[in-house]
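(Deposited chain)
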Amino acid sequence: GISKAENNIDISVLEDCAREVLNQQAPRVLAVADPIKVTLLNWPADKVELFSPEPQDASQLANINNGIPFSGSLYIQRDDFFDTGIDGSIAPPKGYKRLLPGGTVRLKYAYVIRCENVIRNEKNEVTELICSYDAATRSGVT
């Protein structure tokens, strides 16, 4: 039968259906829209490791490429770094879990890095982060 009662379906149901279709048909890519350069001081010169993302389900296996390259020079999203200011006087919000000067964070599929120094341009904008990585924290090992 047909119900004459008004019925609303939550938008998340439509989003889930779209995600199911796109997971099987559309290739996935990673991008950094607003990058900050990260230089790893203790990374061996000319070394590049490939990290492979884990598929959400078996249907995504065909869409996984050869891996994500990881080297001594990489880029992170600017929003993933909190600038505490030149003198370090600006405190991050309570519960902040992203990278900040002197702080550590795990990069997805990779290692834990620590921000050692912040390089700024003439306008005091952050242009590069000098970091170190902990070789014992490779993703999938720890």
Remarks:
- The chain has a mean pLDDT of 86.
- The first helix runs from residue 11 to 25.
- The CA atoms of residues 120 and 126 lie 4 Å apart.
